[in-house]
Amino acid sequence: MTRTFKARVAACAALVLVPGVLSVAAPASADTSGKDQGADVVAPRQQPAKIGTEGWQVLTTASVKDGGDKVSTPGYATQGWLPVKPDDEGAPGTEITALVQNGKCPDVFYADNMRKCFGYIDKLGPVTTAPFKDPWWYRTDFTPAFKQGQNAKLTIPGIVGEGDVWVNGTQVAGKDLVSGAFAGHTFDITKLLRQGKNTLAIKVYPNDPKTMYTVDTVDWGQLPPDNNTGIQFAPRLQISDALTGDNAHVVQANAADMSSSSLTVKVDVTNNAPTAQTGDVSATVTPPAGGGAPIVVKQTVKVPANSKQTVTFTPAKFGALKIGKPKLWWPYSMGDQPLYGLSTSVSQGGVVSTSSQSTFGIRTVNSRLVGKSPQLPQGARQFGVNGKDFVFRGGGYAPDLFLRYDKADAAHQIALIKNLGLNGIRLEGHDMPQDFYDQADRAGLLIIGGFLCCDAWQPEDAAKLTDRDYRIMHDSAYTIGQMERNHPSVFNYGWSDNEPLPRQESETLKAFKEADFDVPLVASAEYKSTPTLGVSGEKEGPYDWVPPTYWYSTNYSKKDKSRTNAGGAWGFASEQSAGHTVPTLDSLKRFLSPEEQRKLWTDPEYNQYHANFESGHGGYAFGTLYTLDKSITERYGKWNSLESYVKLAQLANYENTRSQFESFLHHSTDKKNPATGVVYWQLNKGWPTLLWSLYNNDGDQAGSFYGAKKANKPLHALYGYDTGTVTVDNLGAGSQNGVSVQAKVYDTAGKVLDDQTADGISLGSQAVKTDVLKPKVPAETKPPAKAQTYFVELQAKQGGKVVDRNVYWMSTQKDVVDWAKTLEGPNDAQPQATMSQYADLQALQDLPKSQVSAKASTKAAPGPNGDDTVTTVTVTNTSKTPAVGFFLRADVRRGTADGHEASGDNQLARATWDDNDITLWPGQSQTLTVTYKAADLKGAVPVVSVDGFNTGRIVVGAGGSGHHDEQGAALAPRIEGTRE
After folding, report:
1. From CA 679, how far away is CA 336, in angstroms rounded?
2. CA dihedral for 932, 936, 938, 942, sign (positive or negative)
3. Which residues are registered as beta bridge partners of 396?
4. By the 8 A CB rule, do 692 and 543 touch?
5. Active site residue 575
6. Among 95, 208, 497, 629, which one carries the catalytic annotation?
7. Judging by beta carbons within 10 Å of its beta carbon (0-12, 13-18, 19+), is residue 559 exposed, middle or buried?
8. What is the edge-to-edge ordering of all strands in the sheet holding 852-860?
9. What integer pLDDT is reported at residue 46 of this predicted model?
10. DSSP state of 477
11. HSE-CB of 181 using CA atoms within 13 angstroms
């Protein structure tokens, strides 16, 4: 080694306090004549290139006796190392990713394979399982288009854990500096780089999310035994001449009425030479289609030796940068998503040294507190875009459990989110690769960003923090700001459970300002505040089962100022749900072992591995489905098989997710105590799950999905559990006129108890109209009086056509929450409801048997997310008696030529339906549309199955109608299974 470790760390520390570039000298013996031996070729270009795109070699240091000076030498022997293919971000990922890629744990997400393969962690903290307790080496070869006299800068965007960085036998930085998942650093490696093959090696130290500013999965599922230690963002190399341009971005100043936008373009220019340099800096703003001609601005600048300066193009000097009537970016439910392009270049003598390209959207985010009330004394957080308020409706997004980024999977999930009708997501502590934000920009999907809870990002005691901690916080915020400032989809950022400590806040706000990251900042996801940011206007919880009526409550704890677990539809709910969600039977069989499947319906107190690591139930223990199961038993009755359990769970999840979203729309017009937004906790998981999800990681869409989707239909009629009245909302971009709503009340025998219609309804975009109708429902009963189950059917019509059908199953015996025990108990407000009475819906198990038919057809046609096939299915209730066809679910499946299901797992889980889990009375029909990729059929023909709660299963070919037995003959629907 040419220098002692202490000296190297001291040199690295020079970068800590002042953003800049660290220059590293090459050792005297460095060989600069290496030849390319199949390394990652970094092609000639002026933009930064990702390093490692051709692959990495990864191995625990326990198996590597050599140090970084040898491991980072080109040509170092790596026989026996784990070859790793980078993901779509270009990163090698985590240690477990390396092992899984090399066949160390086939089907890692099935049953508890991950535990069997890699061990078990049951709490946040340091890595405790071998082989992850030791550091691991990540190395890759690369061949840059580097010439004598040029300059080279290496950027490490962050490390999950901490790292020592080596290039060609020399240490560039140590783990004291390179620490944090988002704390990016750039190093001048000009003197280390050689022509031909070069090597980057990073010694990655185990992640401890309780002491490091990294990432973790809190209690969202199982904790990866390696704590996600690894590299989630690709290192980048910038080759340039004497002048290097970077950090190009646009700062907007938009008129209040959005009639104009004044753009300021900024580019940082660094002079790498020992003498002053003159160069030309140009920027081009390219409007979207119909937005006019490109705007080209140029400056000649002189940069002193070895220094950096920010070159600024202002509207005051370059009048064309003030745009009249700009094309505005909107969330997809409110308008279009036009994107402007920004390209910049830095050149000398007509030769371009560096260039950049990016996009941005012109939009303004509005944020304020509204509706002071006893629940929220200083008001609720209200967001708007371009001056238009809206109710935020989203879900908490989780990345892949091993942080593997897949562009196609991201696109599919965004398509599912839009299919749900949600207008945004929340990313808690898991900032994503640039492609994810690019896709969200194009899709018009809003993103709430923010820091994690429950780990190092949420310090309790400032006395335990050091200057190094605050430096990492600052550097992380600066990098996050740079990554996300150009993206119109990112519309606010904040902290999680607790408000930040004073210096934590000041360092973060300072970094965001330095990065020109200008979005509303929120002090906490709970109702907390700081002197600088003020009151958050948000609240959290509950997280476990509560009844559908809970969401309509306005109850709160007077002693808990944070309003945690007071989850009724008022204010801005930053994270809440009724807990566990049960996937379809198709999906369950993909990830639960037979024994886990048996436990699911026979043992409510069993700690399901695919829930999380918290055993027991009650309070903040979510590892069992006990609370959900108890509610199903009390409300719907007992089950006698996995199949009957899953069917009942679909009903329970559907009515709850629907109620949660509908309640916030229903209460959004209450000026004294408005509901302004709700984030379902959680939208998804990065692996198969039984906890907090609207769709599973295989794309499966169960009752929880379709309940939420129903609530978020663009034009929708809903029944308010609290007032018994009908509300109509328009969540689309345009006005809706000539809308009528019909409300019918049925008993379980199909008798119509009430029938009312309201006509002539008009709604502007994002408008909500309450008290449209009040259906007459059976009178409330209380035990021991016999409860009556009934249905309320709402149909919204326009132009004589049904545009929305919404069916509720209800009981005269109501769900009654013991609010004193739920909110005012000795342990503060609880994340689940304590009940004094459950609704009685057990009569649903005795519904008369119903008959349905289906006709299906398929054609090639474009759909969302690259889908190329469309199947339409018309389902009709053909019962001769007034028997409701209850909770009818359609699935497209791989089939045989004679119209039967193919054997094995045949469901197209990733298909996207326009509606499902529908209810029809005799003579009623509904046509469902599903899109998917023909390749997912794997050469089979499509068939459609239709199952109902009180019907048998029917299967039809995509080109035919009717139903068939196993020999293909037509027969009446068959009732499968019994319920006793």
Report:
1. 23
2. negative
3. 426
4. yes
5. yes
6. 497
7. exposed
8. 852-860, 869-877, 925-932, 912-913
9. 79
10. H
11. 28
CA nearest 701: which of 664, 752, 650?
Answer: 650
* Owner of token pair 């071998």: 130
Looking up tokens 């290139």 gives 49
- Strands (E) across 232-276 are located at 236-240, 243-254, 260-271
Six-digit token pair at 456? Answer: 């190092």
507-510-512-518 Cα dihedral, nearest 10 degrees: 140
Over the Cα atoms of the chain, what is R_g?
Answer: 30
CA 778 to chain centre: 41
CA distance 699 to 702: 10
Amino acid identity for residue 91 in this structure? A
> Closest Cα partner for 158 from 139, 144, 175, 170?
175
Listed residue (225, 172, 227, 162) closest to 198, CA to CA: 172
**Distance separating alpha carbons of residues 907 and 905, to the nearest angstrom:** 6
497 among known catalytic residues:
yes
- The whole-angstrom separation of Cα 540 and Cα 563 is 7
Q: DSSP state, 619?
A: T
CA pair distance 355, 959, nearest whole angstrom: 54
Residue burial 349-386, b: 16+ Cβ < 10 Å; e: rest: eeeebbbbebbbbbbbbeeebbbebebbeebbbbbbbb
Residues of the chain with pLDDT under 50: 1-38, 41-45, 960-980
DSSP codes of every residue in 640-659: -SHHHHHHHHHHHHHHHHHH
Q: Cβ-count burial of 112 within 10 angstroms (0-12 exposed, 13-18 middle, 19+ buried)?
A: middle
Two tokens at 810?
């209800």
pLDDT in tens, 37-90: 345 644 444 788 999 999 999 999 999 999 999 999 999 999 999 999 999 999
Distance in angstroms (rounded) separating the CA atoms of residues 22 and 16: 10
Angle between helices 703-711 and 642-666 (to 10 degrees): 20
Alpha-carbon span 818 to 837, nearest angstrom: 8
d(CA 910, CA 862): 15
Residues paired with 127 in a beta bridge: none
Cβ proximity of 92 and 231 under 8 Å: yes
473 CA to centre of own chain: 23
C-alpha to C-alpha distance for 285 and 151, rounded to whole angstroms: 28
753 three-class SS: strand
Distance CA 13, CA 33 (A): 31
CA angle, 686 as apex, 684 and 689 as ends, to 5°? 65
Q: Which of 344, 357, 285 is nearest to 311 (CA)?
A: 344
Tokens of 6: 């202490």
Q: Which of 575, 815, 891, 917 is catalytic?
A: 575
Q: Indicate the burial class of 902 (C-beta count within 10 angstroms; 0-12, 13-18, 19 or more).
A: middle
Closest CA to 864 of 417, 501, 528: 417
The CA distance from 387 to 766, in Å, is 13
Report d(CA 351, CA 288) in Å as an integer.
Answer: 28
Cα four-point dihedral sign 168, 170, 175, 177: negative
- Hey, which residues does 964 pair with through a beta bridge? 970
Asked if residues 934 and 860 have their Cβ atoms less than 8 Å apart, the reply is yes
AA letter at 301: V
Structure tokens, 126: 């340091």
CA-CA distance, 932 to 695, in Å (whole number)? 16
Cα-Cα-Cα-Cα torsion 450, 455, 456, 462, nearest 10 degrees, comes to 100
Kindly report the backbone phi and psi dihedral angles of residue 158, in degrees, each rounded to the nearest multiple of 5, phi listed first: 145, 160
Structure tokens that stand for 481 in this block: 């700001």
d(CA 769, CA 717): 10
Answer whether 419's CB lies under 8 Å from 444's CB. Answer: no
pLDDT attached to residue 39: 57
